[in-house]
Amino acid sequence: MAKTNAIEVKNLVKTYGNVYALKNVDLNIADGEYFVLLGPSGGGKTTLLRSIGGFIRPDSGSVNIKGQNVDDLPPDRRPTSMVFQGFALFPHMNVSQNIGYGLKLKSIDKNVIENKVNKMMDLVGLKGLSNRMPHELSGGQQQRVQLARALILENDVLLLDEPLSALDAQLRKDMCIELKRLQKTVGISFVHVTHNQEEAMSVADRIAIIADGEMVEQGTPKEIYSNPKNKFTAEFIGEKNIFEGRIKDFNKTKVVVDIDNDNIEIANNNYKVEKNQKVSLSIKSESIQIKKMSKTNSKVSNNQIVGKISEITFLGQFVRYLVVLNNNQEIQVRSYEEIVNLKVHDTVSLSWKLEDFLLHQN
Ligand code: ADP
Questions:
Q1: Same structural domain for residues 93 and 182?
Q2: How does the average pLDDT of the chain come out, rounded?
C-alpha cells in the first residue's frame, strides 16, 4: 500500500517587505520519512520549516498535517515538535527536568513523566546523566537532551532546524548516524533543515533542494548526487566541473555540445534538446581520466579535451589535479592513485565515459 502523507504543503508564499522568502512552494512528506530541506543560506528553508511548525504565518497557501488543515493552529496545538538551532536548554534545570518539562506543562502524573523520561534517556543515549546540569554536558549530550525533550511529546512530526550546526565536524558525523537510527526507531517523519550536503546525504530518505524561495528539485540522496536534473543542484552538491555550451548535434544515442569550439560528446539520456540550444554539462571529478599528452596520442576525439596541469594536491585518499583548458576554464580531476609521471605545467588529455556527463537545461 502506498504511504500516506504526513505533511502536505500547497502553494506556500511568504514575503518580508519585497523579499520573497517562499514563492509558491509545494511539498509532500510521507509518513515515517526522513526528509531534508537542503540549500544555501537565505534560500527559504527555515521559513518553510517554521511555517509547518506554526511559528511563521505564511501570506497564502496551506499546510496539512496527517490530513488535518493546521493553518489556524498555533505551534503547541499542531502535531509537531521542534528542535531549534543551538541547544536552548533551561540552564537551571537538570537533564531529567529539561526532558520532562513539556509533559509537566500538560499536568501529566509525576510517575508517568519519570517513566517516560527514563525511557527517552535510554533511547537517545543519556543513561545515567539525569542529574547533570546543562553546563556539565558536552555539545553532543546537550543536543541529545533537546531531541529527547522534543520526542517525549510523541507528536507525529519532528522538525529540526540546523540541529547539528553547533557541533564540531566529527561529532556531526556521529550524530547523523544516531539521528537516522533514532528516526527509524520512533518511526515518525523527521523534517531536517541544513545547508550541509554531506549531512543531508547521510540522514535523508529524500532531499528537497530549496533556493531563492523555490523548490529546485527533489529526490533520494543517490538521485540528487548522481543524477541532478538541475544545473543549480549539480553546482550546489559540490560539482565544480560545469561547462556552458550549445547543442551542436544529436541523435537517439548521443548529443554533441559545442563548448568554446571544443566538442563534447555525451550519451543521450532521453534529453529533450534542440540544435543551437544553450545548455550546461557537468561531470564529477572522479569520472575524468587524466593522461599525459605525448606526440603519439595527440589526436583529440569528441570525448577528450586537452589542458595544462596548474596544481597537484595530495589529499590523503586521493590526488586532485587542477587542469586549465584552452578557454581558461579550470577542471578538477580526482584520482585515487597518484599518476607518477604527471607534473605541474604538463599538457594532458582528459577523457570520460559518454554516460558520465550530465546535461542540464539552463
Ligand atoms: P534559510 O533558512 O534557507 O537560510 P530563511 O528562510 O531564513 O532561509 O530566509 C529566507 C529569506 O527571507 C532570506 O532572504 C531572509 O533574509 C529573509 N527573512 C527571513 N526571516 C526574515 C525576517 N524575520 N525579516 C525579514 N526577512 C527575513
A1: yes
A2: 92
80 & 100 share domain: yes
Cell for 70? 493546521
Ligand 1, residues 15, 19, 195: which to mutate, most atoms within 8 A of Cβ? 19
Decide if pLDDT at 233 tops 70. Answer: yes
Same domain, 245 and 154: no
- Supply the residue whose CA is at minimum distance from atom 25 of ligand 1: 16
Residues 16 and 82 in one domain: yes
Same domain, 104 and 19: yes
Q: Name which residue sits closest to atom 15 of ligand 1, judged by CA.
A: 42
Pick from 10, 21, 9: nearest CA to 80: 9
Whether 350 contacts 288, CB under 8 Å? yes
CB of 18 shorter than 6 A to ligand 1: no
Q: What is the pLDDT of residue 297?
A: 54
Are 242 and 254 in contact, with CB atoms under 8 Å apart? no
Domain that holds residue 187: 5-229
Q: How far is the CA of 297 from the centre of ligand 1 (A)?
A: 54
Residue having the nearest C-alpha atom to atom 24 of ligand 1: 16
Q: In this predicted model, what pLDDT tens digit does every residue of 14-50 receive, in sequence order? A: 999 999 999 999 999 999 999 999 999 999 999 999 9
Task: Supply the residue whose CA is at minimum distance from atom 22 of ligand 1.
Answer: 16
Residue in 101, 194, 203, 118 with CA at minimum distance from that of residue 153: 101
Per-residue cell: 351:
577523457
* Angstrom distance (rounded) from CA 169 to CA 181: 19
Residue 45 in contact with ligand 1 by CB distance below 6 A: yes
Give the total number of structural domains in the chain: 2
CA angle 216, 220, 224 (to 5 degrees): 50
Flag whether pLDDT at 2 surpasses 60. Answer: no
In a shared domain, residues 52 and 179: yes
In this prediction, residue 147 carries a pLDDT of 94
Measure Cα distances from 139 to 135, 167, 170, 171 in Å.
Answer: 9, 6, 12, 9
CA of 44 to the centre of ligand 1 (A): 6
Residue 234 lies in a domain: no
Are both 200 and 257 inside the same structural domain? no
Counting every residue, how long is the chain?
362
